[in-house]
Fold Large ribosomal subunit protein uL24.
Amino acid sequence: MANSMKIKKGDLVQVITGKDRGKQGKVIQAIPATNKVLVEGVNRVKKHTKPGPGTQGGIITVEAPVHVSNVQLVVEKDGKKVVTRVGYRFDDEGNKIRVAKRTGEDI
């Protein structure tokens, strides 16, 4: 069973290793079962598709999943984008809140 991931759908992340290192993009989909995320514009691969009813066949370019350990969350601090790790804290009502480790701000 996979752990819960600290990166969620809609987060802005930066790739920290691999062929797309340094690229930033929004998380399209989080896949906790395999600890992977789908990031917009990152890890693009060519996929050969068969024509079907209502779809045209050919070679299309799609994003492939990236392991969550290869991306870091990007937050904005004083107008600059900063990569950070994610921590958690609990508020007064006992709700779990994600916190940017580098800036100390709530996400």
About this structure: The CA atoms of residues 6 and 98 lie 8 Å apart. The mean pLDDT is 93.
